[in-house]
């Protein structure tokens, strides 16, 4: 057996920022060297950021990725870090002749080994995920090799993300190739209540391959996706050895005892069990084990509980969306209700209350407690606030066109949306919308009204969880939250009955079932794709099933025009749920 | 040789309307029987409509499709049509065990043969397109068979759409299976300037297989897609024999002389040349050739020229979007400029001027000719019109918040959007937006302002083509257009210099290059994915390249929130162009 200290670089790249990401790679490699690491593993497509979507179809972008990889290898050597091998993800190309349906330029979701100033070897993802948030058949062609490099006597194999999840392919060959360690760069997004599927998967693959496994995952917000990190290491028996924290950057080091190999270098084809042949490319960096040293005690971060996890995901998503889009401040309408209160709190935690601007926009139907509760939040958090009454503007519209009922309600919501967009255009704030998932799913919101804005922090949070998160935040904090206030959410906003206040004495329950009932039904219908018969069998009231399905299916159009927002479940609407708009299928008939 | 009369049912299904589509199938089969056809071929997924997107992941929907297929077979028999074989597309399932990444329920893009009240055999698409508008790896699993049924002595093979476009798979087996005819149900969307690729493809495949080929294509608008029909038949030498019209429903019949077969029924595996095995399933409906009869002269419809084709696509798209969504009328803002004039004209042609409502919304910056040109269009077309001045509403906003420059311009556009949305909510009209592709690509439009609405008829039409189509329409008509006016577009709207009129003496060229220059550059950058170096090499001015790329990349966010509109090019923005919003890649650096 031989010792190796592996560093997992759980980092937050920015899509397209090749020089910024490369600079971070060098800095983190220096940290890893300082901590005595023998190998550094960065995440999937770290050099380009992930996901790059259509950028990958541009020749100039793939050229730049390949060039950045070579330059980074040379720069590591020039800065005295050339002896420390680095595994990093980037975009390469397969050099295939064009054909109908093949992505332009035949791009590869690749990973390379950098050592002594050179790109020593590379590989590419074999299994291309094309479900959920992934569209990779659109963007990539398959890789067909498994590099195995000997480092201080230990044979280290490299595979990319999805190849771990599917049967067959490169990971199925690792055992037969006799590798002593499998390292896997990943960009695996957060999803709530996933249990511990990644750990179970890594443990299973480690046992199958009979070797230790290093799983390095991206962290950070990228538009609708939030990557949670949670990188981990298991030994050959599948036991958890080390684990990084969630929702934070971390250089995790781990000391492993690994088997020594003396297999011959060369290229060896293997039947990969999925109809393909994987070529194992075996090469030697160094055969001599490192002199024995005292291992560090392993770090195993505690996992967050459900509410801490979701709240942290939302804060990180807002922080990165603001920063990566180059905004300095956000603006939102504060109604006194719980949705805008929680949104403001998340924003204050993400970028600090001094960069959060709220607008109180009372109408003729606003209750006294609305303004008072909004003002109480402003007082507690210290955000920037102004009051803009909307009555005179609504009157000006109603002088020109006659609107009644729902049309008149929508008008008020749209006047508020226009005020926020006007202030955004004038002062450069990013507009945050405050709609929650229950509203959005049922269409209980106004197109171009409360849905107008640039980012929707709680669009994937059901109303019942909006309350839970507000209560949780009043009891808990985290060093990464920038808001220092005690109990930042006014209690009255949490406990009062929800109302849109667009007409006298309006209550959400005038139009919707109680949220505890609605949210359970939405989860079964939207996330689990149950049909009406299954929903009724699962215990939902038949007339409610019919009503809610109708609302959800009709709201499809509105959801398509909703701004992006952090994703914490399989389906957060908008781009995720794809239904034809002109569509006569009725689940209830 | 034996004669057969084949009927191609070039029809317009509605997604999800299983009973409506089935009813149409029966009616068209009766027509085909009346015309003496021996076989009727409907289009891909005709029974469910195409594309069904996420509906296919619902168990209840796939169940309903399979049930509708069986019921339709029985109904044909019950109505005396059981002897006439029908090939029709529908959704089936493969019955595979679930696994990670496999679409829920393992759906199939299937086609079946109905005869004597039974589903006699079926097949499913083998090559799943996942480029351009197609996402089929997300929705379907692959088929692996090629049914060949003997009809009056002729062996007829059935394959689905994309299988014609790709090498290998079922179509590569047709020749070896000795089929005398290949019939292919399709749902192939329209794209301008595609030349005659479908005919070339059919001719090539017919020659490769050594048999005649029947290509039946869907017609109609389905959200952003427009299917053009253009169904065709080639003989075994690849010569065009018959062709249906474009953008209209048509039952095309053709008489063919085809070889007689006496091969043994049974199942025969073939290596399909793409790593898969395709099972040929040979069965016999009838061996006796039909008695000789006098063939009808073949119908070969003339193809439309570019402008007729594009204009017809837009009219059909608007007509079907309105009808399939259950609207009775549309509303739009009429400025006097060419974009809204063309949009109104398309709408009048699509649903008739009596169902088109226009609103003239002059501001303090509107010129006299704007109102006059708008009024002239109203007079020529006879659409419903009203005038709503916006000055007082804008003043009411400006009393509450201070807006300058672009923020004040956006406010005016948003007030107009709110008026249209208010009238839409109040009276049930569908709001049409009037933005063209050049504006949309460069972000020269206001989010929640002129981009607010339900359908965007000219969102994929560059400004230079907006003028061309307007001139074309003033010179041409078509029996399918519902507007009977002569020269419906006022000449002054076509010839005057374009202006947004959001500030005094504003001209589009204050912010944008001349449209002839801009549109060529947009085509190279957006449709052809050229990088900045390639663009400069192609002759575009370097400073213009830098400026336009910056505009286009920054406008990505706005485009995502734009409503759907008919698609006539590979990329009409919105869902088609997928770029990360937080993204630091700069094509120009």
Automatic annotation (TrEMBL), chains A, B:
<feature type="binding site">
    <location>
        <begin position="333"/>
        <end position="340"/>
    </location>
    <ligand>
        <name>ATP</name>
    </ligand>
</feature>
<feature type="binding site">
    <location>
        <position position="188"/>
    </location>
    <ligand>
        <name>L-glutamine</name>
    </ligand>
</feature>
<dbReference type="GO" id="GO:0008795">
    <property type="term" value="F:NAD+ synthase activity"/>
</dbReference>
<dbReference type="InterPro" id="IPR003694">
    <property type="entry name" value="NAD_synthase"/>
</dbReference>
<dbReference type="InterPro" id="IPR022310">
    <property type="entry name" value="NAD/GMP_synthase"/>
</dbReference>
<dbReference type="InterPro" id="IPR014445">
    <property type="entry name" value="Gln-dep_NAD_synthase"/>
</dbReference>
<keyword id="KW-0436">Ligase</keyword>
<feature type="binding site">
    <location>
        <position position="194"/>
    </location>
    <ligand>
        <name>L-glutamine</name>
    </ligand>
</feature>
<comment type="similarity">
    <text>In the C-terminal section; belongs to the NAD synthetase family.</text>
</comment>
<dbReference type="GO" id="GO:0009435">
    <property type="term" value="P:NAD+ biosynthetic process"/>
</dbReference>
<dbReference type="Pfam" id="PF02540">
    <property type="entry name" value="NAD_synthase"/>
</dbReference>
<comment type="similarity">
    <text>Belongs to the NAD synthetase family.</text>
</comment>
<dbReference type="InterPro" id="IPR003010">
    <property type="entry name" value="C-N_Hydrolase"/>
</dbReference>
<feature type="active site" description="Proton acceptor; for glutaminase activity">
    <location>
        <position position="44"/>
    </location>
</feature>
<feature type="binding site">
    <location>
        <position position="558"/>
    </location>
    <ligand>
        <name>deamido-NAD(+)</name>
    </ligand>
</feature>
<dbReference type="GO" id="GO:0005524">
    <property type="term" value="F:ATP binding"/>
</dbReference>
<dbReference type="Pfam" id="PF00795">
    <property type="entry name" value="CN_hydrolase"/>
</dbReference>
<feature type="binding site">
    <location>
        <position position="410"/>
    </location>
    <ligand>
        <name>deamido-NAD(+)</name>
    </ligand>
</feature>
<dbReference type="InterPro" id="IPR036526">
    <property type="entry name" value="C-N_Hydrolase_sf"/>
</dbReference>
<comment type="function">
    <text>Catalyzes the ATP-dependent amidation of deamido-NAD to form NAD. Uses L-glutamine as a nitrogen source.</text>
</comment>
<feature type="active site" description="Nucleophile; for glutaminase activity">
    <location>
        <position position="161"/>
    </location>
</feature>
<dbReference type="GO" id="GO:0005737">
    <property type="term" value="C:cytoplasm"/>
</dbReference>
<keyword id="KW-0067">ATP-binding</keyword>
<keyword id="KW-0520">NAD</keyword>
<protein>
    <recommendedName>
        <fullName>Glutamine-dependent NAD(+) synthetase</fullName>
        <ecNumber>6.3.5.1</ecNumber>
    </recommendedName>
</protein>
<feature type="region of interest" description="Disordered">
    <location>
        <begin position="486"/>
        <end position="513"/>
    </location>
</feature>
<feature type="domain" description="CN hydrolase">
    <location>
        <begin position="4"/>
        <end position="258"/>
    </location>
</feature>
<feature type="active site" description="For glutaminase activity">
    <location>
        <position position="125"/>
    </location>
</feature>
<comment type="pathway">
    <text>Cofactor biosynthesis; NAD(+) biosynthesis; NAD(+) from deamido-NAD(+) (L-Gln route): step 1/1.</text>
</comment>
<dbReference type="InterPro" id="IPR000132">
    <property type="entry name" value="Nitrilase/CN_hydratase_CS"/>
</dbReference>
<keyword id="KW-0547">Nucleotide-binding</keyword>
<dbReference type="GO" id="GO:0003952">
    <property type="term" value="F:NAD+ synthase (glutamine-hydrolyzing) activity"/>
</dbReference>
<feature type="active site" description="Proton acceptor">
    <location>
        <position position="44"/>
    </location>
</feature>
<feature type="compositionally biased region" description="Basic and acidic residues">
    <location>
        <begin position="498"/>
        <end position="510"/>
    </location>
</feature>
<dbReference type="InterPro" id="IPR014729">
    <property type="entry name" value="Rossmann-like_a/b/a_fold"/>
</dbReference>
<dbReference type="GO" id="GO:0004359">
    <property type="term" value="F:glutaminase activity"/>
</dbReference>
<feature type="binding site">
    <location>
        <position position="131"/>
    </location>
    <ligand>
        <name>L-glutamine</name>
    </ligand>
</feature>
<dbReference type="GO" id="GO:0000257">
    <property type="term" value="F:nitrilase activity"/>
</dbReference>
<feature type="binding site">
    <location>
        <position position="434"/>
    </location>
    <ligand>
        <name>ATP</name>
    </ligand>
</feature>
<feature type="binding site">
    <location>
        <position position="439"/>
    </location>
    <ligand>
        <name>deamido-NAD(+)</name>
    </ligand>
</feature>
